[in-house]
Design a protein that fits this description.
By secondary structure, the chain is mainly alpha-helical. The chain has 2 domains: 135 residues, no CATH class; 205 residues, Orthogonal Bundle (Helix Hairpins), CATH 1.10.287. It is built from 3 helices and 6 strands. Strands 1-2 form a two-stranded antiparallel ribbon. Strands 3-4 form a two-stranded antiparallel ribbon. A two-stranded antiparallel sheet has the order 5-6. Strand 1 and strand 2 form a beta hairpin. Helix 1 runs antiparallel to helix 3 and helix 2 runs antiparallel to helix 3. The radius of gyration is 73 Å and the shape is rod-shaped. The N terminus and C terminus are likely disordered. Keywords: Coiled coil, Intermediate filament, Keratin. InterPro entries: IF_rod_dom, Keratin_I. It comes from Gasterosteus aculeatus aculeatus. One of its GO terms (cellular component) is intermediate filament.
Length: 408
């Protein structure tokens, strides 16, 4: 019978030496490395004594020191008792094997239950990819809108410069028109003065004509009243009327000439100014229309840019929230995986420990079955020695035939 404790094993076999009134029993105990070996001899006979080192009292193959005891009485009764105890021990071994099988099944079931299910995140990956594509498209649209805004800003700047230039031209034309109007006013005043002078000359001419007629009438009356013929050798009198008419004609021709020249010059200048004002007004109107269109375009682009920026901010926030949620889920899953790996490590350690215990129990069972077989051979009348030694940590068994020593 074998004992396991603290890395040592002990084997005790009862043997009976055939004699007339006295039988000697010996046993075999083996230690590590094959030292301290004791051999037990066995033979058939009626009265017998047994020296056993057994671990049957503890109900298992744990660790403990073996104890020797001696049983007197009938050899058959003793062997039957020993076989019963061995059968009980084997029953305990079978019970432990069943418990080990049940425990292994429970471990497998627990492992199957605790195996983390792999979640399918493909739909979320598709959503994330779609959001990334939307962000990319929004970024491209934003860049395109920024380019359009820059182009519109440059065009507006060009139109502003053109407007300022046209405004300067318009102001210059208006200044020229104001100057021409002043000249026209001066010419009008000069014309009025000339007309007043003409009227004055006309009145003076009428007055002179009236005086001349009165003088002629007076002279005629004097001539008619006197009969004296006086011949005067004098120069003929100047015809005042002809002179006045000539002067009047000269002034009228000069005035008419000046009037025609002034009207023609004024008409030419007025036409030029009108054409310039019309052209400037048309250009100014076109520029104002283009500026208004550009302002509306710029305003619509700014509104669209703000909406795109809002959409971009919302998408970036949604993406950040999604990534945060996924990172949190991944961290939880990683913690769960680490916990399960630790539990799996503990389960594997328990399985290895139980496998080691099972191996130890199986070795004990094997040796007990060998001892039972040996006891059966003893009961059948065989006489041999069973020696078990532990050599380099391994159990080595051998049997040898022995001679029976009879002591008188």
């Amino acid at each position: 019978m074998t004992m396991y404790g603290s890395g040592y094993s002990a084997l005790s076999m009862s043997s009976v030496s055939r004699s007339a009134g006295y039988r000697r029993g010996t046993s075999v105990h083996g230690g590590a490395g094959g030292s301290n070996v004791r051999v037990s001899y066995a033979s058939n006979g009626l009265g017998s004594g047994f020296d056993l080192a057994s671990a049957l009292g503890g109900g298992g193959g744990g660790g403990g020191d073996g104890s020797s005891f001696s049983i007197s009485g009938s050899e058959k009764h003793t062997m039957q008792n020993l076989n019963d105890r061995l059968a009980t021990y084997l029953e305990k071994v079978r019970m432990l094997e069943g418990a080990n099988t049940t425990l292994e099944r429970q471990i497998r079931e627990w492992y199957d239950r605790q195996t983390p299910t792999v979640n399918d995140y493909s739909k979320y990956e598709a959503i994330i990819e779609d959001l990334r594509k939307k962000i990319s498209v929004a970024t491209q649209d934003n860049a395109r809108l920024m380019l359009q805004i820059d182009n519109a800003r440059l065009a507006a700047e060009d139109f502003r410069i053109k407007f300022e230039n046209e405004l300067a031209v318009r102001m210059s034309v208006e200044a020229d028109i104001a100057g021409l109007r002043r000249v026209l006013d001066e010419l009008t005043m000069s014309r009025s003065d000339l007309e007043m002078q003409v009227e004055g000359l006309k009145e003076e001419l009428v007055y002179l004509k009236k005086n001349h007629e009165e003088e002629i009438a007076a002279m005629r009356s004097q001539v008619n009243s006197s009969s004296v013929n006086v011949e005067v050798d004098a120069k003929p009198q100047v015809d005042i009327s002809a002179t006045i008419n000539e002067i009047r004609a000269q002034y009228e021709s000069i005035t008419e000439k000046n009037r025609r020249e002034m009207e023609e010059w004024y008409k030419v200048k007025f036409d030029e100014l009108n054409s310039q004002v019309a052209s400037s007004t048309e250009t100014l109107q076109v520029s104002r229309t283009e500026i208004n269109d550009l302002k509306r375009t710029l305003q619509s682009l700014q509104i669209e840019l703000q909406s795109q920026q809002s959409l971009k901010s919302a998408l970036e926030g949604q993406l950040a929230e999604t990534e945060s949620n996924y990172n949190m889920k991944l961290s939880h899953l990683q913690i769960r995986v680490n916990t399960l790996e630790e539990e799996l490590k503990n389960v594997r350690a328990d399985i290895e420990r139980q496998a080691y215990d099972y191996k130890v129990l199986f070795d004990i069972k094997t040796r007990l079955e060998m001892e039972i077989a040996e006891y059966r051979r003893l009961l059948d009348g065989e006489e041999r020695i069973l020696i078990e030694e532990i050599v380099d940590g391994k159990v080595v068994s051998r049997t040898e035939d022995v001679n029976t020593e009879v002591i008188e």
